[in-house]
Specification:
The complex is a heterodimer of chains A (304) and B (321). Chain A is mainly alpha-helical. Chain A contains 14 helices and no strands. Chain B has helices spanning 3-30, 36-65, 79-86, 88-119, 125-133, 140-151, 165-172, 186-212, 216-224, 229-240, 242-257, 261-266, 276-286, 290-320. The chains are: A mainly alpha (304), B mainly alpha (321). Chain A: One of its GO terms (cellular component) is plasma membrane.
Chain lengths: 304, 321
């Protein structure tokens, strides 16, 4: 800021402004007190429902079905019984937990790998119609996955894959690719061309450049997308219920819990505990890798 | 299958994939230095093949099937579309979708923006943000369970206590408890609350970054001019982050158009709460009416396209300013 010597006129104006500024400052303090209150109210509204459910999941079945969780403060009692029952009882959530893991890990590794290869090709290789194909892949982000589900399912049935994990792995891979290729392409493109040229001069081929130079440099971007994809697959319900239904062999946690929620006479002691079991992993991943997640979010994403 | 068998399957699938990719890279690496085209193909073909077979072909096939009857055998012209736009139940579905797509982005963005401004540069900013942001990490199914419990209703009788927070608040205030998820058309609003609860964190994160990127000379000049509080927000903050606002609004609108999990978990589409994406699922996978389901998917696609195009153009603008 440049210093300005106040001319008499400006000085007059300033003296005129002085009281206004003081009252302005006072008003600011006042609004900031209201602002804190407003922020606090929003924060409470956003946490209270989750807190209520969490507390409920640790209350004995009989109490949680007859009284609200707020009565816990006058009548504190805690138990792990609900978790034990929902995991190993007739609901068998432990099985679905394993299913979710078995579905999610390949459904993250496969699309990220394929997208890295394709993104590198679009960014650093020369071939006919490169830009046209890239725009086409980019445009595929528009397609809502609903439009592909019914024909895709009959393809799986024809291929005899129904009832295995393959439909889920392949579907999640397909639906991830357009966004993944687009995002990773942008990051690959940012690598300085001199670096690639230097490697070429040294006799490195595309495979070497890709593995030795590119991958290490774009690891943060890969992590960002990987977290996105992880949360997306773990939390998905639509692909799960359309591709495999609710079968115990392959259905993920979300499908099972949605089913529990829909059944007659809500079993709140199972549902509350079950809901938290499904949330543990994504919340841990999210909190541990929040930095990457926010970066991915800000890189812009529209997911089918 | 028992659990260990599944884990073995997973490891085998990954090993198979890694081996396949290794082979592709090995072959591509062996290619003569001038054989650029072959190398490019090796890098791209796996992804392009999957996209063609798994996305482009099915999309075209869905469009084709939308002109056929429920078994996809007899051509029926535009009958499916006529049904979608004239049947009473479908009109409710379209109306609900419109309400969702309008209210969710507006409310989430408004709350996210206000909160971002309120906690900006406060001492507890990181923690305060995490609180709003955390619902983004959990599934919409989980979020629905959380709110289903808030809305839970118990009949208003002697000796029966409410276990849902909202109804208990009504009772404390001296009102009668009510069935939030059953009364039409208000139940749709109570479902929208869940989506707003989830999406506000997204809005807040993006908008908070945009607010921090406002050049400080602008805010300082405005402060010198005596702008504070609400007027600062109205005349400086909002205009400066307009591109980010548009991106947030449209992104949430796209996500909302496809919302399926909340309706399914909360009401199963009953009591007049269904939306297009849920109706698509019921028609296509419950009542097995391929024709109507395909038509609904096409309608969804047609609704999404203009929003995505607008979104992408705004994003470009925001980037290259």
């Amino acid at each position: 800021m440049s210093a300005v010597i106040p001319t008499p006129a400006v000085q007059e104006e300033l003296s005129h402004l002085e009281p206004a500024t003081i009252s302005g400052r006072a008003r600011k303090r006042l609004t900031s007190r209201w602002a804190s209150l407003a922020a606090l109210i929003i924060a409470v509204l956003w946490t209270l429902p989750t807190f209520g459910l969490l507390l409920t999941s640790f209350r004995p079945e009989q109490s949680l079905k007859t009284t609200g969780w707020w009565t816990w403060f006058t009548n504190p009692e805690l138990t792990l019984q609900n978790y034990d029952e929902v995991l190993y009882g007739a609901t068998a959530l432990s099985t679905y937990f394993i299913n979710s893991i078995v579905i999610t890990i390949p459904a993250v590794i496969i699309p990220v790998t394929l997208a890295c290869l394709a993104a590198y090709a679009f960014a650093w290789m020369n071939f006919p119609y490169r830009d046209t194909i890239f725009v086409a892949v980019f445009a595929l982000q528009i397609v809502p996955l609903q439009i592909a589900l019914i024909p895709l399912l009959s393809l799986y049935v024809d291929a005899g894959m129904r009832g295995s994990f393959w439909p889920l792995w392949i579907s999640h891979t397909i639906f991830a690719l357009p966004l993944a290729i687009f995002l990773l392409h942008n990051f690959f493109k940012e690598v300085p061309a001199e670096l690639v040229e230097a490697a070429r001069v040294d006799g490195a081929g595309h495979v070497t450049i890709f593995l030795r130079i590119m991958l290490p440099l774009v690891t943060p971007a890969i992590a960002a997308f990987g977290i996105f994809q992880f949360l997306w697959v773990w939390n998905d319900l639509l692909v799960a219920v359309t591709m495999v239904g609710g079968t115990r062999d392959v259905a993920p946690l979300t499908a099972r819990i949605a089913e529990l929620a829909g059944s007659q006479g809500t079993e709140w002691h199972l549902l509350t505990a079950g809901a938290f079991i499904s949330m543990v992993i994504p919340v841990i991943v999210f909190l541990a890798l929040q930095r990457y997640f926010v970066r991915g979010l800000l890189a812009g994403s529209v997911k089918g | 299958m028992d659990n260990s068998e599944k884990l073995v399957q997973m490891v085998l699938a990954i090993a198979l994939f890694v081996a396949l990719m290794g082979l592709v890279l090995l072959v591509a690496g062996r290619a003569r230095r001038r054989a650029d085209l072959w190398q490019s193909l090796a890098f791209m073909v796996p992804a392009l093949l999957l996209l063609t077979v798994g996305l482009i072909y099915p999309a075209i096939r869905t469009g084709y099937q939308s002109f056929f009857d429920r078994t996809a055998e007899n051509f029926v012209g535009l009958d499916n579309y006529q049904f979608v736009f004239t049947n009473d139940a479908m009109i409710t579905v379209l109306r609900n979708t419109a309400i969702w797509v309008f209210l969710t982005p507006v409310l989430s963005t408004f709350i996210g923006l206000v909160y971002a401004v309120l906690v900006d540069r406060s001492r507890v900013e990181a923690a305060a943000k995490a609180v709003i942001f955390l619902p983004m990490a959990i599934s919409l199914v989980g979020a629905s369970i959380i709110w289903k419990f808030v809305y839970e209703f118990r009949p208003d009788q002697q000796g029966i206590e409410q276990i849902g927070l909202l109804n208990q608040v009504l009772v404390w205030l001296g009102a009668e408890p009510r069935q939030f998820l059953i009364g039409e058309p208000w139940n749709t609003l109570f479902l929208i609350v869940i989506m707003v609860w989830v999406q506000a964190g997204f809005a807040m994160t993006v908008l908070s970054a945009a607010i921090k990127a406002i050049p400080s000379d602008i805010t300082e000049a405005a402060q010198l001019d005596g702008l504070t509080g609400v007027r600062m927000f109205r005349y400086i903050t909002v205009p400066s982050i307009r591109p980010a606002l548009v991106v947030v609004l449209t992104t949430i609108a796209i996500g909302t158009l496809k919302v399926f999990d909340i309706v399914r978990t909360m009401t199963g589409g009953q009591f007049g709460t269904s939306v297009i994406s849920y109706e698509f699922y019921t028609q296509g996978f419950r009542t097995l009416n391929t024709g109507i389901a395909s038509a609904l998917a096409v309608v969804l696609f047609v609704l999404v396209v203009p929003i995505v195009v607008y979104n992408v153009r705004q994003m470009r603008k925001a980037e290259y300013r």
